[in-house]
User: Fold this.
Amino acid sequence: MPDDPAKWLVTCSRDGRAKYLLQPAFIRGTNVTDATATLPTSGTTYVVNLTFDTEGAKKLADVSQQIYQLQPPQNQFAIVLDGLVFSSPYFREPILGGTAQIEGSFTAQEAKDLANVLKYGALPLTLEVAEVTSISPTLGDDQLRAGIIAGLLGLLLVVIYLLIYYRALGIVAVVSLVIAGIITYLAFVVLGRTIGFTLTLASIAGAIVAIGITADSFIVYFERIRDEIREGRTLKVACEAGWVRARRTILAADFVSLLAAVVLYLLSVGGVRGFAFTLGLTTLIDIAVAFLFTRPLVNLVARNSWFARGGKLTGLDAARLGVDEIATGKTVRGRTATTARKES
Assistant:
């Protein structure tokens, strides 16, 4: 229960060593217009300089004239914050000008703390409840398990789609998704041990959204490769040219997701911040996997002769691409010639 400055108060110092019986407050924190900790030019210890408003200056002058000649502890006054005495200086002379200086064996930090108490301790504060969520341990565990299952099902559906539509090329995407999943898991573990990151339902939702973002990156890249092959380029050349065209789209899409995550994190509270944090983290992981793993793996696959010929199970055959022939590179008399191969 907060103390009433208009009533007598029995209290103690912050360390509990000194006990006080205090009269009603003669000056309140709202009467202090400024308080600063300084080191005098000729001094060796810090002091706290105070400035009072008109009402505070008048009360300070009246009280200081009354008690400065009294014997200790009657000539002391208490600076009280949250019901405890922060400091208890005494008057050496009447203070008539509306400004005062508290001296003592203060360190720089002690003087600064006292100045902050005098300057900000009486500011009116109102706490508003932003969000209250009460979930039983059993229900929370069930919801978390259901969210994880939903994420795994979503991942499974994405894998099935990639394998059916892109066939052998889809294996590259699946392996990339597995790598991204491992990195994400390790990131969760590290962040949990370092900054206390907790996997909540909102965080799982962000991770599920990230699965679609990562899959989009693969689809954009693979479709660019297909477009290049349709224009008559070999698989190796198509992979290089397709990457140049795809990376701009991938970076633009990931930048939008990352920007949305940052805005949500800064402007939201509660579970939404967990969603935003996970979304931003997994978006950065998507960029790293696409550049450092997926592209090199596709370039490696492009060197395989079966992929280069456009076999039916590669996902790059002529029938699926809607062309009559697939361009291949052959060596003729010491130089490379590009020819087209028709799928039968």
In short: The longest helix spans residues 235-267. Residues 137-342 form a domain with the Multidrug efflux transporter AcrB transmembrane fold fold (CATH 1.20.1640.10). The two ends are 88 Å apart (CA to CA).
